[in-house]
Structure prediction request, 447 residues.
Amino acid sequence: MPTILVIDDNPAVATALETLFSLHDIDTRIASGPDEGLAALAQSPVDLVVQDMNFDTDTTSGEEGEALFRDIRARHPDLPVILLTAWTHLESAVELVKAGAADYLAKPWDDRKLMVTVNNLLELSQTRQQLARRDAGERRRRAALDGYELRGFVHADALTESALGLACQVARSELPVLITGPNGAGKEKLAEIVHANSNVRSGPFVALNCGALPADLIEAELFGADAGAYTGANRAREGKFEAADGGTLFLDEIGTLPLAGQIKLLRVLETGQFQRLGSNRERTVKVRVLSATNADLPTLIAAGQFREDLFYRLNAIEVRLPALAQRPDDILPLARYFLPADKSLDPAAEQALVAHRWPGNVRELRNTIQRAALLARGARIGVHDLGLPAAVAQTTAQASDTVEPDRAAIEAALARAGGVLAQAAQELGMSRQALYRRLERLGIKRD
Prediction:
């Protein structure tokens, strides 16, 4: 329930206002003078002040009210204040409104008009409080990331900051971390951040995409192979676990790992030991394992395609990085980061970027910006340079609806195009269908 402080030395006025506000579910506090009002504000916050302009008997100058208002403004700069007086001084009213007074009303007041003003100010006050809380939350989140190595990770969205905060928080643990999220969202970058803030940050960071290799080679990549272990293995080779010894191994697309490889991976996670293919020798490593997937591992478990015990071993801590469409505040900072120094985005292009759903996530955004920067003829990148189908269609439709070329322009374009409607429409910035409609309205015959 919102709270209003009424500062007025007239008990009848205070009671009338308290009754009016109570009918609108507003809590009212009463102070009979400036000192009492300032003390009440210092004691507990309110959402709005309604104050008189004169307090001493036979005083009509408004000086006391002006002094009180300026004291309130100095101590509570964002607190809205409505000034009430039976003695209206126009010049004083104008000056006080310029100084920040929300409104200056004469007694007796109109209940309806007063409540309109009060409700508007309370709504504005609540909005400001919500923004202040959000800003405070953002500052706390950003402060929580101070001192961590973020590897140049570009972000502005609260959801991304939350994922980053969790990644940094668990980085110094030795527990395995499972990073989930769609392809192209930045999971490997998040894994690099975990490694960069871990106790093994001085060791190697080795990444392997389990989905990029044939099933018969994945075990050799993970655990290595002795010479002759398989066709074409002419010499012994080191696996990723050995390469990552003393550091971090990042296994991307872990859901594609074959079942045989899953069993061996589980053993390494539990014992730190493994054997190369074609060897009976036990090798021991100390590796922090991070994994990532865009798949629904519980569904794969139910289908018998992923081991449940391995899932719980990998998923000691899960960090979820949402799709780019779910963190829209990241889009423009990322787009500007991918831009060359000599290029910029026009406002319409920025709007189109934010409106796009980005099924390919950050990877798609990067490719789109790099392509647009290459194809744009000037320093300014427009909507058509981005090549986003929905955005291009929208701007073309807007152009055809709002820019109506006259008869002379259409006939000249048709003449230059040799009567080819598609070519004339492109020159006029219209769709072919829009040009057809325009020809019919103007009565222009097509040869």
Observations:
- Residues 368 and 386 are 6 Å apart (CA to CA).
- Confidence is low (pLDDT under 50) at residues 395-402.
- The first strand starts at residue 3 and ends at 7.
